[in-house]
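B., you asked whether I could sanity-check this one before it goes into the benchmark set. Here's the sequence:
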Amino acid sequence: MKIVVFAGGVGTRLWPLSRKNSPKQFEQIIGDKSTLQLAIDRLSPDFAPSDIYVSTGKKYKDIIFSQLPQIPKENFIFEPEMRDVGPAVGLALALIGKDYPNSPVAILWSDHFVKKERRLREVLKMADNLVKKDPNEIIFIGQRARFANQNLGWIEFGDKKAEIKDTKVFHFKRLIYRPKLEEAESYLKEDNFAWNPGYFVTTPKFMLSQFKEFTPDLYQGLMAIQKAKNTKSFDLVLDKIYPSFEKISFDNAILERVDPKYALVIAADLGWSDIGAWEALKEALEVSSNQNVTKGKVLINDSEDNLVFNYTDQLAVGIDLKGMIVINTDDVLLICSKNSVPKIKKLVESLAGTQNEHLT
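And here's what the prediction gave me:
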């Protein structure tokens, strides 16, 4: 099995820690390693570095090389320009598919938190075996829902197809992107819905056939790039063709169009969380909802349900705080309620063209 870990997002919802020049996946959000390094570490007990690929933007090349010296240089995939997830996934599968068209490939993301790492590796190997038996399949990996999360995608699945070591494999029905709260609450009560981490396993040959069917222009460009791989003209071809691709999400381009008969779902408790926003990070790290989650030099009294991360040598002190997010960096202090976190992205966008643009 080959595994691609994507590390190309900017992550404005984790501003002011995550910025254009150093996005969240390269920062030490949890512990003393970046989330990208943690994503690679959780795979290493069962998967060799030679089978792990990393996809990101070309401008992050130096950061990537310094953080992941164990990954072979030829396993890094650098996008010349960010064109959203559809082209990014297509590029990775086209390049890997030139040499391994029928090999199972897992798609993972670098900015997630997984408590049950061994369980994730078990599920990946199960999906690997399923795809080896039928290379014209895609296996979605779902996280059993812990609460009615309206900020995530969900997967609906149908009847059980098989059971492997007490792990059930279901027929796929559909993907739902960020449902309304009342819809999420109804999904939580059912047994046939799970959160969608965006993890799946398939083969390059099958997935590229879906690109050919649903996005023929993108497919033609990907095939031209694939043809140029391992030739002297590769960089020129990539730099010319890739920036011309339409910006489109992978869900819109492919996944929402795939015939359900080609898809299966493994829904398991991986202890997975999307830590792409501060309130989600708190939920991932907390033991109880009222707990304060802190990092750095922090002192808070008579307070509950707060996340306070201090990245400076200065002591951050809080009294009578409830449901607050406080992020202190060398040049920005962010203070907002947990419910206001979705507004951070708009605030960062509003800084463009102002005297504070350098802080984005």
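One thing to flag: Residues 279-354 form one domain. Otherwise nothing jumped out at me.
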